[in-house]
């Protein structure tokens, strides 16, 4: 299966780890173009590096990856004291994947609505919750 990983860039090292795991399972994996930059600059917030984002048109680049894949995998680890954190960019990627009819996998359950205002919108995209088990991807 061709899978595009979607995640907050603060999880860049985890994105690289999961990519390797999925490839060992036989999947073709695409990652955000900001991953290497984020992993190499862990103390720098990529969202503050607008020049890098504009030069690489990171949003369009990732949307095209989603469009060409069979599924997305959202790596929603805890962040900002929110279990299963999903940021605004990833919410947009989930919406695009849903619109395009792609499978949507969430590594962990989504946050409660009291912790994340748009939790309902994530639920409406009917993601498949993996509960941390990549072997459930099919």
Q: What attributes characterize this protein structure?
A:
14% strand; five-stranded parallel sheet; single chain; alpha/beta; 138 residues; Rossmann fold
Give the helices and strands, then pairings.
Layout lengths: L1 E6 L4 H13 L3 E3 L4 H6 L9 H7 L1 H10 L3 E5 L12 H12 L3 E4 L12 H6 L3 E2 L9
Concise structural overview:
This protein is of the alpha/beta class and 138 residues long. It is built from 6 helices and 5 strands. It has a single domain, classed as Rossmann fold.
Description:
This protein has 138 residues and is α/β, with parallel strands linked by helices. It has one domain: Rossmann fold (3-Layer(aba) Sandwich). It is built from 6 helices and 5 strands. It has a 5-stranded parallel sheet with strand order 2-1-3-4-5, sandwiched between helices. Helix 4 runs parallel beside helix 5 (88-99). The protein is globular. The N and C termini lie close together (8 Å). The relative contact order is 0.18. The mean pLDDT is 90.
Give the mean pLDDT.
90
Low-confidence stretches: none
If you compute it from the alpha carbons, what radius of gyration comes out, rounded to the nearest whole angstrom? 14 Å
Q: Strands of the biggest beta sheet: in what spatial order?
A: 2-1-3-4-5
CATH C-level class: Alpha Beta
Overall tally of structural domains? 1
Structural class given helices, strands, pairing?
alpha/beta
Query: Could you say which overall geometry the principal axes of the C-alpha atoms support?
Result: globular
Find the count of extended strands (DSSP E, 2+ residues): 5
Describe the sheet with the most strands.
5 strands, parallel
Strand content: 5-15%
N/C terminus separation: 8 Å
CATH architectural grouping? 3-Layer(aba) Sandwich
The helix/strand order is: EHEHHHEHEHE
* CATH topology label: Rossmann fold
């Amino acid at each position: 299966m061709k899978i595009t990983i979607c995640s907050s860039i603060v999880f860049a090292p985890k994105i690289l780890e999961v990519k390797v795991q999925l490839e060992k399972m036989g999947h073709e994996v695409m990652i955000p173009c900001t991953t290497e930059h984020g992993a190499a600059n862990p103390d720098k917030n990529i969202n503050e590096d607008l020049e890098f984002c504009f030069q690489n048109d990171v949003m369009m680049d990732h949307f095209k990856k989603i469009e060409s894949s069979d599924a997305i995998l959202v790596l929603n680890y805890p962040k900002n004291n929110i279990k299963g954190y999903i940021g605004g960019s990833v919410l947009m990627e989930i919406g695009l994947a849903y619109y395009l009819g792609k499978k949507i996998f969430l590594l962990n359950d989504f946050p409660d609505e009291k912790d994340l205002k748009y939790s309902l919108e994530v639920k409406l995209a009917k993601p498949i919750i993996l509960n941390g088990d990549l072997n459930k991807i099919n």
